[in-house]
Amino acid sequence: MSFEHHTGDLESPFRRKLLLGTAALSAASLLPPQAFVQQALAQQFPTAKVSTTGLAVTDSEVTVGILHSVTGTMAISETGSVEAEKLAIEQINAQGGVLGRKIKFIQEDGASDWPTFAEKAKKLLVNDKVASVMGCWTSASRKAVLPVFEQYNGMLYYPTFYEGLEQSKNVIYTGQEATQQIIAGLDWVQKTKAAKTFYLLGSDYIWPRTSNKIARKHIENVLKLKVLGEEYFPLGSTQFNSVINKMKLSKPDVIYAIIVGGSNVAFYKQLKAAGVDLNKQTLMTISVTEDEIDGIGGENIVGAYACMKYFQSLDNPNNKAFVSAFHKMWGDKTVIGDVTQAAYLGPWLWKLTVEKAGSFDIDKVAAASPGVEFKGAPEGYVRIHENHHLWSKTRVGRARTDGQYDLVYETANLMEPDPFPKGYQ
Description:
single chain; alpha/beta; Rossmann fold; seven-stranded mixed beta sheet; five-stranded parallel beta sheet; 14 helices; 15 strands; about 15% strand; elongated
């Protein structure tokens, strides 16, 4: 059973049935309507039935974990994820929670350090016994925690677009994998810009290196085009003048940039200072969302293209309500990027899956995940595939001076996720 996201929807058939079935409880009928529904749900789903493996579930609460970097070089990217997850939890609680239980969260800081992520994941699963974790950003952090989630049988909702080549019973990947972003984006830029030469850049860790490996294979083997250069920089790097000079000399049709976190601020400022006009030099990024532009400054990246599945400027009712709620909770000046939106999907998809499973038990939630759909997604609509990735649209945006993106392209239909594309292993 899946549920649409309607705030305060007390009149759904499911809830009407509950209300009718518990109308005889005269004491409960004195409660406010939302509390009445919550109590009725909790009684229909007793703790002993919905939590059989010792998770942090009581008759009135269920505890989840939030695990992101709020310090270090990745804080610029991950803070939005934390804010989105807290907003989703607040909205879910306002609707009565999950199976009649309010969501409580325990937040840990991965501190932009992969061993710290693994240590905190173990704490959340073993000590706190959380029913799920919303967390990680970089692939390095996800790779660090994955053995922990598999060993202790936890459930991670991972929000970042990533390189693919992974699938786990213990992870729901709410961002895009390579075929939905890297390959689709390269096809668009080649076709639209008649591009023949590319220069690949990235931060020096697993996601950019693997993504550029996939990009190079696609450029050379499928599109039959040329890569003029490929360079990597340690996380937190601020010196890009040398590679900028090389690119100015080699004149690639497309700069393909997968630099992450705070390094983006230095890179785009130095690019502009070197006289590179992104309205004339095509640059495509798959790592700069509105969150990063907030630090970069719109004037330093205007004209660049980004291939994502979500932009804050998307014009649909779900997104307007989401942006409004986000600004109300976190301030009008906050911006919302692709990963922030994908992080917002995590608590909602978990809630819907728990309700479909009728249980918080990890194995039952994992088994119930395929086919769960969230019609209230700000990006429009998403559905969980059998491979635990999401069906979603691919979009291309162009950076504006105000730090937002203009939507310039989107796929007509949802793209099926394929984390293991043939020929790209």
